[in-house]
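Journal club prep — side note

Before the paper discussion, L.F. wants everyone to see what a predicted structure for a comparable chain looks like in token form. Sequence:
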Amino acid sequence: MTSLARWAEVHRLAVAGREAGIARDVGGQVSRVWLATSRFADVARLAGLTLTLGADASAFYHLGWAKNATGERTAALAAYGQALPLYRAAGDRGNEAATLTSIGVVYRGLGEPQQALEYYRQALPITREVGDRAGEATTLNNTGAAYDGLGELQRALEYYQQALPIRREVGDRAGEATTLNNIGLVYDGVGEPQRALEYYRQALPILREVGDRAVEAVTRYNMAMIHCAQGDLDQAVAELEQVVELDRQVSHPDLRSHTEMLVRVRQELADANRGRGPR
């Protein structure tokens, strides 16, 4: 049994024995590792078990993260909404900021970037107050994403470029990859696909290094769309095949639409190879 599996077993025994303190501590540690490797369903299950022993801010926070990652936005907001007052009551300013940022992420996922910005604006000064450089970088990155959603691409790029060096400074490899990916999206949006590909290619090996299959799938999908637009259908199919496999591994909510895209591009490639061109 691996060390992580042993800790998961400790958590199970703590829940069974109604040892709330142990379950919360161990569950939080295991959840953080699983979140980093896209084991979202496992995190939701673990957090739910912890919460059978009573309210716990960290368990609610991890549950919110897992639910948002699998497209359950309403459930994510409910979980974060339970975590926020608990962190405030405990005077935990760092996790208060993290929860505010995470609520903003959910609103951005719901297509409400202006609402997201309101939460990021609350979070950013707190991250600076407590000296949380990693949290500051995350909030800057997400602020950029919200402006991207509003179509303010130059402003989005400014925030991403503030976030990137901080993420490198604190050694946040997963966050660095996310920001690189976001910069790529901006350059693609302003009509510079080759520059976008440069950033996606910087992100890809980092994502494989940290094991973030969900974001790797997003990066590869973005690359595939550029290859499609450039008429490089062979490369687009190769990327989309990997996207679909990664989506399956993490039960990604976009699996169906990405599979449909793969089928469509394969057909275009087959038509092109027969000399008839895409339909």
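L.F.'s comment for the group: The mean pLDDT is 93. Keep this in mind when we get to the figures.
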